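A student in our group prepared the protein record below, which I am reviewing. What it holds is a sequence and that sequence's fold in token form. My question to you is simply how this chain folds and whether the tokens agree. Do not assume that whoever made the record got everything right. I have pasted the whole thing underneath without changing anything:
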Amino acid sequence: MTNRRDFVKSLIVGGTALVMPRLVSARSPFSWTNPILLTEVSAKDPWSEAIKILARIKPPVFPNRDFKITEHGAVADGSSDSTAAIRKAIEACHAAGGGRVFVSPGVFMTGAIHLKSNVNLYLAKALRSSLRPIQRCICPSSLPALKAPSA
């Protein structure tokens, strides 16, 4: 060998030649045919069931019905509270057996909403379509007056 570079090359090639047969042998836990490459899968490993679980998952199918939140009183002005209208649209959709609650383009102010079974909340593709939370606060006038305990 003439220099360090040739020595390092021969070391890498020799090391690879020694290790590769072990890695690709049929009995090796690091077999290339292993579905989870280069890891050992034990029978008790819950992750080995992931492929079976994913195969059982089916995407939901919703009935072809639309419930527009604007038809239930929602206003897209960015300041009006549309929470009740969105909840009414969700309830109407659920009561009809499911479908799509359609949020048209605009800015709708809303508090917490809860989806029900078989309801698909759909935001229209538009330049701007969003649901913004309402910042609720407790005004000091609604709190009971705090008094120091009398002695």
